[in-house]
């Protein structure tokens, strides 16, 4: 999702939790990182195309399996504190294999996999801020998809740290957390 640069620079006067966040205007989307609010803008057409193609491949693979795939907007209380969580993210795509973390409105805890499609305005946020929060929370697999360079940086959690491999648009990626699942990148990046 796009992060509005103007909103990112806005100095919100206090720290927020999910309980605060839940009361805000539904027409404006936010994420909370360590209690600070970040306004999100609408995604580009290319961003939406990539999400749709990735979602299709993941959903087809997961059909009839215990893990589920979700797409933004979908609230993730990353540290599993529910209403008291001060880090609430909305990955573009996420995979959840533990249904007990889901309630009727959100995920309480870490997804097994998170995918972000970056843009020039979200690159730093996704590559640094969210990456460190996902690593700390224990997200086992984190993908950063770059539409401009047509590549995917795959971060696999090993011993509490991410190990990174980058794949180009001509390659196929084996999803580490989903045995047998392969994502065909030429299909993702085709126009």
Provide a quick synopsis of the model.
With 191 residues, the chain is of the alpha+beta class. Helices cover 25% and strands 32% of the residues.
Could you characterize what this model shows?
- The strands form four sheets. The protein has a six-stranded mixed sheet, sandwiched between helices. A three-stranded antiparallel sheet has the order 1-3-2.
- It is built from five helices and 14 strands.
- The longest helix is centred in the first third of the chain and has 18 residues, at 45-62.
- It has a single domain, classed as tt1808, chain A, CATH 3.90.1570.10.
- Mean pLDDT is 89; it is low at 1-11.
- It is of the alpha+beta class.
- It has helices at residues 5-9, 18-21, 45-62, 123-137, 185-189; strands at residues 2-3, 29-33, 36-41, 68-71, 75-77, 88-89, 93-96, 106-108, 113-117, 141-146, 151-158, 161-168, 172-174, 182-184.
- A hairpin with a 7-residue loop joins strand 13 and strand 14 (182-184).
Give short descriptive properties of this protein.
single chain; three-stranded antiparallel sheet; alpha+beta; six-stranded mixed sheet; 191 residues; globular
Q: What is the 3D form?
A: globular
Q: Classify the helix fraction into a percent range.
A: 10-25%
Radius of gyration, in angstroms, nearest whole number: 16 Å
Please outline the major beta sheet: 6 strands, mixed
User: What do we call the CATH homologous superfamily?
Assistant: tt1808, chain A
Please state how the strands of the largest beta sheet are arranged side by side.
Answer: 4-7-9-10-11-12
Order of helices and strands: EHHEEHEEEEEEHEEEEEH
Number of domains: 1
CATH class: Alpha Beta
Overall average residue pLDDT: 89
Q: The CATH topology is what? A: tt1808, chain A
């Amino acid at each position: 999702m796009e992060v509005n640069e103007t909103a990112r620079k806005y100095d919100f006067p206090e720290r927020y939790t999910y309980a605060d966040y839940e009361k805000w205007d539904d027409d404006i989307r936010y994420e909370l990182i360590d209690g600070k609010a970040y306004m999100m803008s609408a995604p580009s057409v290319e961003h939406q195309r990539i999400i749709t193609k990735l979602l299709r491949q993941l959903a087809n693979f997961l059909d009839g399996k215990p893990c589920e795939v979700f797409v933004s907007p979908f609230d993730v209380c990353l540290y599993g504190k529910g209403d008291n969580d001060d880090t609430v993210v909305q990955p573009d795509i996420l995979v959840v294999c533990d249904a007990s973390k889901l309630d009727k409105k959100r995920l309480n805890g870490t997804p097994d996999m998170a995918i972000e499609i970056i843009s020039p305005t979200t690159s730093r946020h996704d590559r640094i801020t969210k990456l460190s929060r996902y690593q700390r929370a224990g997200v086992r697999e984190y993908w950063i998809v770059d539409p401009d360079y047509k590549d995917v940086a795959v971060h696999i959690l090993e011993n509490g740290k991410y190990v990174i491999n980058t794949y180009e648009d001509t390659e196929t990626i084996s999803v580490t957390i989903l045995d047998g699942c392969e994502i065909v990148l030429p299909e993702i990046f085709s126009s």
